Amino acid sequence: MKSIALKSGIAGAALVAMSGIASAEVMAKATTDLNIRSGPGPQYEVVGVIGASEDTNVGGCIDGSKWCRVSHDGIEGWAYSDYLTASFDTGETVVLTERPATAVPAVTYESTASTGAGAATGATTGAVAGAIIGGPVGAVVGGAAGAVAGGAVDTISAPPAEVRTYVQSNAVEPVYLEGEVVVGAGLPETVEIREIPDYEYRYVYVNGQPVLVEPESRRIVYVMR
Questions:
Q1: Cystine design at 210: which of 11, 30, 160, 224 (Cβ 3.0–4.6 Å)?
Q2: How many domains does the chain have?
Q3: Ranges for the SH3b domain (predicted)?
């Protein structure tokens, strides 16, 4: 087993251990704008983003988890495998979550004793209170880009400056949900979404990021970065 130090957007100490049959990095493509986080979980800080349809190197994934270690444009961190696709020996493009068992190295992650859990890697103390519903899983695999379970994704251009200012000036306590914040994903009914004066969409902070939400479908239409 080989241990290496994880590089992230902030200084810290965390260990990634690699094991398994596969050893080479895998090239994957993002099906949507996808966060890179400093650790494998929704509570970790966003340190970068993989643009929709952009390629990224996948160094390994945690067994029994949807978090994979990635390297993109000089940034190393973790991304959610539901929104990455790759081609393996069969030549078929599949969602990375559904990859063959030995297609990528198995990795583990742990904070070092000197930092405590998540202290130096940007993790918050918020508890995960549910799961994000759906999203553009495999949007480029046999379907139209942006397709999601339950219908097409509504997307909007950048909101007016006054909307962004209102959301940032009226920040609320974030809710943490298993999964990743992407356009088209749905929020469970337990998540309170807030009104914005004279604006058709509502907002909430999910996994540390403000998002705009279509109130009837409760789907994310814009992620403020």
A1: 224
A2: 2
A3: 33-85
